[in-house]
Amino acid sequence: MLHESISISVSVTLQPDWSQIFRGEKITVRCEIQGGGDTEWDYEWKTPQSTSHQTHVNYWTLSVSESSSGNYMCRGRNRRDSYSSTQWSKTITLTVSVSNRVVVTLNPNWSEIYHGEMITVRCEIQGGDTEWEYEWETTSSIKPSNQNEFRISSASSSHSGNYRCKGRKKNAQHETTGLSDAVTLRVSDTKSNQISSSVLTVSPSWLSPGASVSLRCEVEHPSAGWRFYWYKTVPKLSDRLYRYELLPGSDSGTEEDSYMVHGQTHTAGYVCRAGRGEPVFYTEHSKPTFVWSGASLTVSPDRVQHFTSDSVSLSCEGNSTEWRVRRFPEDSYLSLCSDWGTMTGSTCNISGLNSSAVYWCESGSGQFTNSVNITGHNDDIILVSPVLPVTEGTSVTLGCKLRRENVVSNVFFYQNDKLIQNDTRVELIISAVLKSDQGFYRCEVQTDSLIRTLTSPQSWMAVKCEYD
């Protein structure tokens, strides 16, 4: 039977297809046949080591040496008809360097290392079982020893620089590898214990029992390598601190900067922090963030804005007999009612508001109320608006209050800086609140005894759905 040549596209490929292959590296030679339909093939090769090499699969993997250099060709033979074959492919040339590939690696391989972190610079010579001595070139002010690893237990700016290495055979000192490519190590002046800020956001902040809560943690200096730790906050009424309990699945941290709490049934506070490295360096814990469901904090008088001379009462309501009130001012630190007011039972009484702050109640059983924003003002006029979010469909009344006299006429109300009422009514009444009514409100008045117009600060009025 005559040999039959079939016109089919045949090619040889190398994987990886690097321009330079080093001694000892592994490479896969593959025969690609296109246009053969469902024909089953055996493969015949021409290699530098032999005139004929046959395989049942279309590839083979070899650990290359100098003798692997040369031309490679292949063709396919029909398994059902050994006399039927493709044409030979074009040749592909493999060039193997007589040296070994040398690579410098950083562990951990982060774009920025913080002052005080641990890192290892390693010289890796790939291929063969030769015993090596190692030589380093670096632009840093601290020189590595002639070992394959340079362990930095506490990184500093003096370790910053480019690192290159090469190997010298122990049994043949005149034989060396080439120099590796340079790897750059950057050590920040920021100390690991100064990476202090984590910010936790919670969505939603108002929820129905059984709903899911989404937590997201952000680091002040974002970079690679962070793992995130998630906690539930439990108040310790014996002192001013919280006890943090790790949430399920975050004992070793999570790679994702977000975390879902499913089936939330009661009020809770959450905290996060981030950590990285070995040993682990942590950020400080984030400020506690709360979700509300059940227990509540009410404010009397019920408004966001107050004059600095006003007395205000904050009352905690819920399934607990032991409450305390906390606040976090814009320009100060987390503190208790006993620092700026008087706690009587479950009510905190404040004789004057000197600053704006967020307030909430917490109990020893781990309950937290909703948080409220209350502002103190030295102005002659304030807006009267509800502290808590208003439910869609309900009625709400906004007003203006002067420090020394009553408002009688000429009241103007604005929503998001747009004038929405300018008639003789002294109150803004929304009979059935819609989501579109949510926004920033302020008022302006002109009394009989005043010629100039007075403008209140603005406050946010939140609107929630009926089932929130």
TrEMBL record:
Keywords: Disulfide bond, Signal. GO terms for biological process: cell surface receptor signaling pathway; immune response. Residues 10-93, 100-184, 379-455 form the Ig-like domain. InterPro entries: Ig-like_dom, Ig-like_dom_sf, Ig-like_fold, Ig_Fc_receptor, Ig_sub, Ig_sub2. GO terms for cellular component: external side of plasma membrane. Gene3D superfamilies: Immunoglobulins (2.60.40.10). Residues 152-161 have a biased composition (Polar residues). GO terms for molecular function: transmembrane signaling receptor activity. Residues 152-177 are annotated as: Disordered. This is Ig-like domain-containing protein. It comes from Anabas testudineus.
